[in-house]
Amino acid sequence: MQDGSKAYIHFIMDNFSRTILGWKASLEWNAKNTVSNLKEVCEKFNLFHKPIRLLCDDGSENQGAVNGFLDQSNLFIEKLIAQVDISYSNSMIEAVNKKMKYEFLFPKNPVSFEEVIETLKDAVPEYNSRPSGVLFGFSPDQVLNGDIPDKHRFVEKIKEAAAKRPKINKQGLCDPCSDHSAISKKK
């Protein structure tokens, strides 16, 4: 923020759809915000009694109160620490963190914590509704709601566009370019 203070932002994301399910921003870095975010996501998506794997790093914000919350006998959430319990990293959520910072927060250069909150209120739904190449043109929300990414989804349209491209590229050439004899040929 412009005054030099820091806002700590915590996202919970579905690994398959890449949808941001919940987020919290705070002026403090602690596990209480993580627990609050987890509770809200579990309530919103009715996840309290479903078996879930929670992938996180081993930061302090993911310990203490988080472990206490997850240890409840009525929860079926298995906490997995990236590169400790499993071999891969949590780079997917780190990419979302980076996207939020560089596409939404840094360009806006928020003056206050309230402005950070307002920016995220707009940024998260935009991120969730934006088509993604990784999801083969579907948005995270579409995949969360049942659409299945299919790498063959646009194959025919891509072939059609590739076939049309040479003709389109030749239209509207400037005068020197329209004289093909004036265009140097590679030797």
Automatic annotation (TrEMBL):
Coiled-coil regions listed: none
Q: What molecular function does GO assign, one term?
A: nucleic acid binding
Which InterPro entries does the record associate with it? Integrase_cat-core (IPR001584), RNaseH-like_sf (IPR012337), RNaseH_sf (IPR036397)
Q: Known SUPFAM superfamilies for this protein?
A: Ribonuclease H-like (SSF53098)
Q: Which domain of life is it from?
A: Bacteria
Integrase catalytic domain boundaries: 1-148
| One GO term (biological process) | DNA integration
Provide the protein name.
Answer: Integrase core domain protein
* Source organism: Leptospira alstonii serovar Pingchang str. 80-412
Record lineage: Bacteria, Pseudomonadati, Spirochaetota, Spirochaetia, Leptospirales
